[in-house]
Amino acid sequence: MAVDLSNTLIVAISATALFDLNESETYREQLIEQDPLTATQRFREYMQQHENDPLEIGAGFPLIQAILNLNNCARDNHPGSYQNNAPLVEVVIISKSCPETGIRVLNAIRKRGLCITRSAFISGGEVADYIADFKVDLFLTTNREDAQSVADAKICACAILDATPVNTFKLDTEQLRIAFDGDAVLFDDSGELLYKQKGLKAFHDREAKMTDLPIEKGPYADLLIKLSLLQDRLPRTEESQPIQIALVTARNAPADLRAIKTLRDWGVSVDMAFFLGGLEKTSVLKTFAPHIFFDDSIQHIEAARNYVPTALVPYHSTSKLYKHTWTPRTKRSG
Q1: In 47, 118, 120, 283, which residue has its Cα 20 to 30 A from 134's Cα atom?
Q2: pTM score
């Protein structure tokens, strides 16, 4: 009997985002340069020799750990077969490695005590082809091309995790904290586009006139709504809140009212909202200390990445905001 996961928050993450696989990925690239014909087999042999070696955590590890911890504090959990009870949250590994080389990742998952039971090792296949099969709400990867293909397919929210010098071990995983940018992330990209084309005054003039009109959904709207529904299923007090969600946006008056009213129209109430009006976001993010910060701006990502795990939200390739010239710091196979 199939498990009903319609009310489960499902996050897919690439192996290179969950663990630090830089060493093995660099070795694989060297093998390809030496001899493309034998590289695959030689890399499989290498991974088999090292399949029991431990892996250091990647940029997405604390987020995944905090997400999985939510299953421990559900008030509507009840005894019964774990195979038939749908969890509040589920994490899926989707890797472009082959199953044989994936053994090292699976071993690392078990050694770290992560409750991850579903995975896909697709031997270099197209990730976007399988994301929908797992009914994913969020896909995290270090590979820009994979993220772009998922964004273009509009399958789910997706982001490119940047390698970060942050000591991710210091992040508390007892409470899940997520920070979202507004325009082109939670909201559609019309406001961001107007600002870049005609300037701040034109943007503020439009927002003042449209205060009571909800903003169209952006690529992360449905994820936020599902997170909010998940919050309602968890026990909360003023002293203990399993999830905290923050809106961290460059909007300010008069554009702030429309943002709050839009969230209300969606049935969402974020825990914190910061309308910074052009101030640097990093200070607020350092204080909030999220497990992940989602933003579409490379500038904001570059400023914040030294302090918090960051995730770049790619524009749809047909958007006028789409940039062709940016090269990510990390581009791994996944």
Answers
A1: 47
A2: 0.88
